[in-house]
Amino acid sequence: MNPNLYLSASGNVGNNAWDNMGDVEFHSDHDSAEKLKKDKFSGIKKFLGNIFHFSVIKDVSRKIDSFQPVENEDNVANLKKVSDRLGSNEGGWYERPNGERLYVKFYENPSQGKVEFIANAIYAKLGIKAVRSEIINLDNREAIASPEIPGAIPTDRYSQNVSRDVQEGFVADAFLANWDVAGLVYDNIVQGKDGFYRVDNGGSLIFRARGGDKDFSPDSIPELTTMRQPGRQSGEVFANITDEEIKRQARELISKINAEDIKTIVDASGLEGEERDRVLTGLLGRLNYLTTTYGESKTDERRTRQDLKDAIRRVSEQEVEPVGERIICPKTEIVCDHDHIEGQKIDVINKKKQGTIELSFKLRTQTKTINDMIRLLENGEGEQFNITTPSGALLRREKITYEDSSLDNKFDLCDAVLFEKEGIKVFIADSTSRGETANTISFQSNSSHVVRTAIGLIKIEIAADADPQSVEQTLEDIFELDLGIPDAFEDVSEEAEREYKKARYKWQYAISGELTPEQAERAEMLERAEVFPGYSTFVEKGKHKEYLKKYGEDIRAAHELYYADAKMIIMILTQGLMSTTERFSRGFVRNGMSSKLDLDSGGGDNVFTRITNEKSRREGQFDSDMMVVFKPELFDRTDWFSYEEDNYGSTDEELFSKRLSPDALFAKILEYNFTDHKNEQMFRTGIGPNYIESIMIDPEKYDATISELKSLGFEEIDGKPIEEIVIPRKLSEEEKRAQFELEQQEKQSKIKALINGEESYASFEELVDLANAAEDGNINGSIMMMMDSLIARGKKEQLKKDTMDYFIENFTIDELKALASHEKISTFTDDDWQFFEYCKDVLGLDYVAMFQNLKEEATDGYF
Amino acid sequence: MGIFKKDHSIEKLPKPVYYVESSDDTSVLVGIDVTINYLNNGKQRAVIKWFDTVKERIMSASEIKIQDNCLVFRRTEEEGGGVYSFMPMNLDIYNNKIKQYLIAGSNYDNEEELISAFLSTTKEGV
């Protein structure tokens, strides 16, 4: 989501709301309104008396406290029309045999009736007096029916203005965008025996009173302002509502209705499709707006701005402490910006060893101002070192370099444009270039041919002894005047945060279109949480429970390491796992022998994991020394993405568009029964130690490692014995044997069940798997016995298809060709050939046709 | 052994460090602790796994050849295909084909030091 779109839309909402309200109220071609125009305001009471002649009808008394249906088919069938329409819409008064009367309206667009139903039901839920209504089918047409208000009489502007019932419903009116609540001649509110009732609410939500479409913003409630402005009917009625009163009413409203209530009401209305989505999104968004704007925690606790100078002071006070043999520079972050900075946060790193404080962040998109500056350098003017920017900074070419805090090691990530002013250096990464040997940028999984971890990267160096106050001022100048980011250090507004959450939600769940109302509601619920020391992101708390329920309670993300000793384990348990760029940016650039290819592919910004289950973790097909297993709460994070296969964590657009949503990922892995280990997940920046569930190590190293950990003082972690956190990875030989024997027995039982008919069917693939457990070791013979049995039970055609699919899926082209031509091939034994003959004769497999079809379909040029 | 026999076995390549090359994939460079997990149950005949100085890599192979301490495999089409070759690391390969792609590759006089330096990257992955 481009936040600019939001800002633009928001502005339009306000303007349009005002214009449209005028439209509704003064340009209607409503019959009654036309009459009224002619009459001007003379004889108004007489006119109102005609409109509200129903008000003298007695004896219907219904409690307005629910939105359950009021009419069943029998009742509807017995309705008798007793009067003509009262307003612009077709309809009239209808009477039951017992004398009960209902006003029935046939809207030209039946959706408007549903919307009126929703508005009335919400009023009821909020305890605000309004006519109760129901959608009915009368004479094969959809209509909205409302029982009369007992003893109702007309009201006027003055009486509405002083009515407690009317005034106390103002926020609800604004919430529902019921612009026409008062009525053209204050005729939409009547006085019943027990108070004032809103009786014509068809101009709510997405409809104007006359049925036209209207804007119904989910992002704010402009009506809280516009409906109080004098000059309009609603403004005359609500002009005295104060901001304090709005706050009080808003709090009452959000205490009485929740998102679930709203969804239930909207569903009960029968509204469908785009209109349902607009209404639901609008209502949920508006509810959230009231909650975030007027809710107890939001209005009473002022949002604290973590301003730059405070962050600099705070991080400066932190001592650089070694972790094991490493020195990792302290880091904090400030949450700021509206829509330019990725994650709406800036890292502040204490690099005292280098005599600097470093700020680091990524731009979501490069601004035009920055592009202009870069172009200035590209045009050759950058050869001079005295280009002065609008803020007075000097502009020149430089590079972004990662330096180790304690050694001389360093690494040039890419070239950069540098703005320098008053000792402050702002490096803007040029991800397209790395020194003179540009060919060292890896381009696989990276068709863009750029250093992908450098895209949008900005690094700022500040002298450690600089005055934070003046630093902030200078940086604000540079950002505003040179970079075109005037709001970089401003607090994140609620609107900007809301938009960012929506964008993040779409990103995380690989949603390409607009969010559904339910998704939008979930997006609103995202919370910012520190997931790695000094790094926060949005999390969807509890999301992991859904995954575990759907895909298995034992699914976990895990990270494998090729070295394990006590010191390494301590480092992991105390600092978690860090991405390459996180290590580098915090001053740990130790091993020059590591490949830089992950920095080019984009994977270097992330910690890599794979999805495992208990069995795959225990059995571990490979022999890495250590596996870090993470708590399922890790899946709550919204800053990770995943591939089905090993793509080196690339963020290349082409590959990224094929990433899997979490659900698609888990479903795939489940489909392969956790035997496919090539999947990869990329978690941004780092995974904090609080996410570590266990560390599994080679059983041969286990005892010695535990002893060493204890000798180093690590007997417990968070109150748990170290043996419960650090556990042996593999099953013992005895456990392995027992497990294997159990599985074999189960398979042998199933073979018997298939042969004697207790089991009705198994796919060919399963037959192969079962036959591998055959007691006599005769795999092909066992398969044939099971096939004979299935064929005898009428499963021949199904089995034929299954077998053919298996051959096509699992045999190589050369093998299929050999089958078709009956040529010898090393992978087929004589026993296999006998089996293939059996399949040909008994199932009727045609190997020549299979091969020909495959050949014709082949598109990979293999043939 | 018949075509339907499922025989999972793991083989580890004899050398500790390999140069990994693929004309289709420049994200590969160095292979440490290269293992082959033979599956023998379909087109995906083996899974090849190694540590590449930064992360573990896992790829599915549809064809495998091992000759003169070198491994060549064809990646399955489902994973994008391509042919990958693993050659034992030596100073010549390091200087000509690898050094430029490292964070800060040092100069080495002998192979033993070179191999040892690569193996030390297994301790840096956190």
Q: What would your notes on this structure say?
A:
The complex is a heterodimer of chains A (863) and B (126). With 863 residues, chain A is α+β, with helices and mostly antiparallel strands. In chain A, 42% of the residues lie in helices and 18% in strands. Chain A folds into four domains: 3-299, no CATH class; 308-492, no CATH class; 526-730, no CATH class; 764-857, no CATH class. In chain A, the strands form eight sheets. Chain A has an eight-stranded antiparallel sheet with strand order 11-12-13-18-17-16-15-14, with helices on one face. In chain A, strands 25-26-23-21-24-28-31 form a seven-stranded mixed sheet. A five-stranded antiparallel sheet of chain A has the order 1-2-3-5-4. In chain A, helix 12 packs antiparallel against helix 13 and helix 13 (273-294) packs parallel to helix 19. By secondary structure, chain B is mostly beta strands. Chain B has a domain at 9-90. Chain B has a six-stranded antiparallel barrel. In chain B, strand 3 (30-38) and strand 4 (46-51) form a beta hairpin. The relative contact order of chain B is 0.20. The model of chain B has no long low-confidence stretch (mean pLDDT 87).
Flag low-confidence runs of chain B: none
Shape of chain B: elongated
Which range best describes the helical content of chain A: under 10%, 10-25%, 25-40%, 40-55%, 55-70% or over 70%?
40-55%
Largest sheet of chain B: 6 strands, antiparallel, barrel
Mean pLDDT over the full residue set of chain A: 81
> Number of DSSP strands of chain A?
31
Give the DSSP E fraction of chain A (strand runs of 2 or more residues): 15-25%
The most extensive interface, with participating residues per chain, is: A-B, 65 and 58 residues
Structural class of chain A: alpha+beta
Task: Kindly estimate the percentage of residues of chain B that lie in beta strands according to DSSP.
Answer: 35-45%
SS class of chain B: mainly beta
Helix content of chain B: 10-25%
Strand line-up in the sheet with most strands of chain B: 2-3-4-5-6-7
Instruction: Please give the count of helices of chain B.
Output: 2
Report on the biggest sheet of chain A: 8 strands, antiparallel
- pLDDT under 50 segments of chain A (min length 5)? 1-74, 298-305, 859-863
List the quaternary state of the chains. heterodimer
- Radius of gyration of chain B, whole Å: 15 Å
Query: Got a strand count of chain B?
Result: 7
Euclidean distance between termini CA atoms of chain B: 43 Å
